[in-house]
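Sample entry as discussed:
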Amino acid sequence: MAIGVMKDAIEVKDGTISVKDKNAVRNMMDGLIYNAVFEPDEEKKKGLLTLVKEIAKACGAVPASIQELYEEMGRNYPGFTVPAMNIRGLTYDTARVVFRKALEMKVGAMIFEIARSEIGYTKQKPLEYATVVLAAAAREGYEGPVFIQGDHFQLVRKNYLSGPDLETNYVKGLIKEAIEAEFYNIDIDSSTLVDLDKPTVKEQQRPNFERTAELAGHVRQLQPQGVTVSIGGEIGEIGSKNSNPEELKAYLDGFKETFKGTKGLSKLSVQTGTSHGGVVLPDGSLAKVKIDFDTLRVLSDMARKEYGLSGCVQHGASTLPDEAFHMFPQTGTSEVHLATGFQNIVYDSKALPQEFRDEVYKFISTEYAKEKKENQTGEQFIYSTRKKGFGPIKKKWWDLPSGVKGPIMKELENKFGLLFSELKVGNTIDIVRKTVKPVPVKKEINSSLLGL
């Protein structure tokens, strides 16, 4: 990047970045974010990512909490369901497509998220993920609140049972790292600790609501001044039995009794019949999912009317048929989590060269051979494991030529357009800007990294 060009576009004064020429910055962003993501020196990488993030914020893409919008949804459900999108690979290109479609459809109510497990296997730490998303927003000229979320910040059951303090402290460390990276939306998942052997529903849910309350208190201690992080809880681990009103009441009443802060949860994840990634059949095709929309309707209504939450959250929905998505706003669902469907579009696109797909699958088959279960077919193994094909060879994905990425991004753009339409989030930019007032949190930068 030519220093003269940077000086014409950006000014740094007293450690604060201001943008003199947004168009020039937009044109530089592809190179800036690429250099930051693939910088080999870890400390320099952190510095470059922070710089790029501050530049994006100066362009008007500001990390924000969705708390105030969800409080409004709790008072008066506005008839839309917020899509929360996990982007595992080609993150910059995909986020650009999301923002492009959002600008076209005037979408403000949308979330970019990454789960605890995904942070590991996609090689996207919170700082990198947040920066890539914000860089994409700046590149597309998207201004306003950008909601970035830690999804399934989960207490892993086997880890917790062998060392409760160690596992809890790990998640606390992850929360700290995420908030520092400006994730102002955190989903705490201790539903893994529910003990169905206990005699009452409240006792079954007790380890869940007690740990959620502890971790929520940790979030409140870390959140920057002026920011109220939106916190989600979860009552039923995705893939197990469907949730019911008794569990919701036991969990939320228990949380209320245990949590010492003033602002508690903004939403609640429930189980209604889906599974993460869908259920893959022996031939590699997906089984049809039967979702219990009546449960979603009843629990969302209860969460709003009795507890003031925005409603309930549906996980594992991206592999549902397109014609199912209109049901989420109809049932008052406040948020729906989408991940594997986007990954499937990328892997299954005719535009992805077969030799590259084969290279990725060979890498997966070699690197993760021990993860193959005895009863799995080769197709089932690849489908369930190919999410891990993005992180270790991330640079090869980023370096795919535009002739390959372009058609894939068009397919993704069509999917985002359908989802935004079916979830009724078009024209939500006004309600978001009315309810959410982002607080720019200044981060210390090293401007010498850009030669300024």
Notes: Residues 350-398 form one domain. The chain is about 50% helix and 10% strand. The chain has three domains: 3-59, 63-346+411-435, 350-398.
